[in-house]
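TODO from last week: model ATPase of the AAA+ class.
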Amino acid sequence: MKKKDVLDLIRYHFENDSTAFKNQSLEIAREFSNSGEEQLSSYIMGLISQADTFIPQESNLNEFFQIVPIDAKSLPLPTPILDDVKGIINAVNHNVGIHKFLFVGSPGTGKTESVKQVARLLNRELLMVNFSSLMDSKLGQSAKNLISLFDVINQIPNPNNFVILFDEIDALVLDRINSNDIREMGRLTSEFLKLLDRLSTNIILIGTTNLYENIDKALSRRFDAIVPFDRYTSEDLVEIAEVFLNQYLKQFKTAKRDIKLFKKILTTVKKLPYPADLKNIIRTSLAFSNENDQYDYLKRLVKSFHNGRIPSIKQLNKLGFTVREIEIITGVSKSSVSRELSEESKHE
């Protein structure tokens, strides 16, 4: 961190320039992250996310929104999705009125995390709509709350400082025809459509949904672009898993890195989970690993993909693992593995 960064931070504080103060803090957090100081970076990001001073005090944003902390790290994405995210950044910077985007796809495909990265790349605060502040049991009140929400959004001071997120938007606007409560959901959805049409072009709004087939098609047409996230190949998932592993290995000094075996374990899985679940499996395998066994996380990884158990030596051999790799996974010596495989071949 440079001396100028500290001086600027102090100056922004005394000038009461909360936006510049926050942006400078984010930049410092990114520098710490890039230099390997992950804990310090996370601590700064946590302080930023808790600070109410970054939400304009003159509006009632606190009623409808919660501030979302943004990770300083870039998100690993397959090329087609990454190109679309870059396209969104370009569209916003071109300032031609394209400002409403819908991210669709299965749970765990990175939709919400990608919204965070859009905000990071645009150097904006991310405000997520709190749906609990909108929904009301009184007939028609939810629609009135929605109108109030959009009044607040359209009157946000310095709108270029924010991205608005409607996470899991299907909870708000399901199909008007197939909804259980046709009248109330229909009223809410119809109002939402009108409000989207009147949304200021200075506001960047992004919605996400796991249930694209269930939302009203008229809503889909209100968005300037729809980005599908179910576009991961097996190769993409293996590459992303390697990124996650490298990130977490920095925190586990006793675990030994064996990328070749790590990738082989993943390639033997018929259907790999999407990034969110994959990330959690890798993190948990490392967290639960035995400090006295540098390859224990790989054993746990294998168990995660094979119903909680390690396959037999014969099964591992059929999956293409070498004698050395089987020794690492099972803990059985190479000589014993070779002997068992030799005996098996004699009986075949």
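Done. Confidence is low (pLDDT under 50) at residues 52-59, 175-180.
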